[in-house]
Write a structure and sequence with these properties.
It is a multi-pass membrane protein. One of its GO terms (biological process) is G protein-coupled receptor signaling pathway. The protein has ten helices and two strands. The protein has 337 residues and is mainly alpha-helical. A two-stranded antiparallel sheet has the order 1-2. α2 runs antiparallel to α3 and α2 runs antiparallel to α8.
Length: 337
């Protein structure tokens, strides 16, 4: 798990950081939809940072060594970021539906101010609804090849634990998935209707429709498949508290966790980096970085000497050609192998 977790972590952090940078850096990316996409990148980034490293460490050490405060804080932030990610996906799907199906009438409420308020509301609601997690996590000592300390859920009643798990699956999986699926179906139907009404533009619209359809279907399918195993195992566990945890179940749970983390690593590539506007902004950023690095003295001296030699040869004059290299005390770091 640590190796796979490291790959997922690096890919997710890099992709989501690029999305946040592009939306923040370039003025043309300050649109309503990109506000939701950048908020999704923030939630995915926070989810990866708050969840994946601690899960990997717990998998290696088989115990919790960070104390009670971190036990409550880490699992609380896990719940907050999971809910914020799923709710942002639902809000983003509704925004895309309004922009494509009702482009004119939605202009009155599809504003940057409303987008900022909704993004802040997603975080506030997720923070409030996750408080029971912080209240019901505690340290527990058990004997497993010696005395070990674990950070586990310790609810006062089984009914409360099962009720909160059902609520989590409903709010963080079923409702967002239903919202994304319904909006996707309505968007695809609208695009197909436009193609029938304007047959002259059928070729261009068909290409755009296929691209939009692929993105929508990919979002729904990847979200459903990424989170289904983890939620299924959690539901099975909460309704079978006395069932033994075998090595097979432990392996399946680990794979389900990695799959759910992978969703946050894949999201930026689905929503943004495959888009033309994002690619253009990334190219601008790369060009700016290249322009900010001055040419080395060696390149300047060599080019100047080559130019002098060519000029002299054109005049058919006898010249004594010499190349003066710039003194370099130490090779640059990039040249070291």
């Amino acid at each position: 798990m640590p190796t796979i977790s490291a790959v997922v972590f690096l890919v997710g952090v890099t992709g989501n950081s690029l999305v946040i940078y592009v939306v923040t850096r370039f003025q043309e990316m300050h649109t309503v939809t990109n506000y939701y996409i950048s908020n999704l990148a923030v939630t995915d980034l926070a989810f990866l940072v708050c969840c994946l490293p601690f899960s990997a460490v717990k998998y290696v050490t088989f115990e919790w060594k960070l104390g009670l405060s971190m036990c409550k804080l880490v699992h609380y932030m896990m719940q907050v970021t999971v809910q914020a990610t799923c709710l942002t996906l639902a809000v983003l799907s509704v925004d895309r539906y309004c922009a494509i199906v009702h482009p004119v009438s939605s202009m009155s409420f599809r504003t940057k101010k409303v987008a900022k308020i909704l993004c802040a509301s997603v975080w506030a609601v997720s923070a409030l609804l996750s408080i029971p997690v912080a209240m019901n996590y505690d340290l527990k000592e058990e004997v497993y090849y010696g005395r070990r300390t674990y950070c586990e859920e310790m609810w006062r009643s089984v009914a409360g634990q099962r009720g909160y798990m059902l609520y989590t699956v409903l709010l963080a999986y079923v409702l967002p998935l239903a919202c994304c699926g319904a909006c996707g179906v309505l968007i695809i139907r609208r695009l197909l209707t436009r193609m029938e009404r304007h047959p002259a533009q059928q070729r261009n619209q068909a290409r755009q429709t296929r691209r939009t359809t692929c993105i929508i279907v990919s979002v729904v399918v990847i979200f459903a498949l990424s989170w289904l195993p983890n939620h299924a195992i959690n539901l099975w566990r909460v309704f079978n508290l006395n069932a033994p945890i075998t090595d097979a179940i432990h392996a399946v749970k680990t794979a389900a966790l990695i799959l759910s983390y992978s969703n946050s690593a894949v999201n930026p590539f689905i929503y943004t980096l495959i888009g033309e506007n994002y690619r253009n902004c990334l190219k601008k950023a790369v060009l700016c970085c290249r322009k900010s690095n001055p040419h080395s003295r060696f390149s300047s001296t060599f080019k100047g000497s080559r130019f002098s030699y060519l000029s002299s040869s054109k005049k058919k004059e006898s010249v004594k050609f010499s190349v003066r290299f710039a003194p370099v005390s130490k090779p640059p770091l990039e040249m070291k192998t």
